[in-house]
Amino acid sequence: MKQKMIALMVVSLFCACRGNDNKPEFSGTYVKHAEGEYSIADDTLEIREINENSYSITRTTGYQKIREGKLLPKEQRHEELTATYNPQSQQLRESKRGRIITMKDGDSVLRMESSEYRRLP
Question: pLDDT tens digits for 81-91?
Answer without folding.
Answer: 999 999 999 99
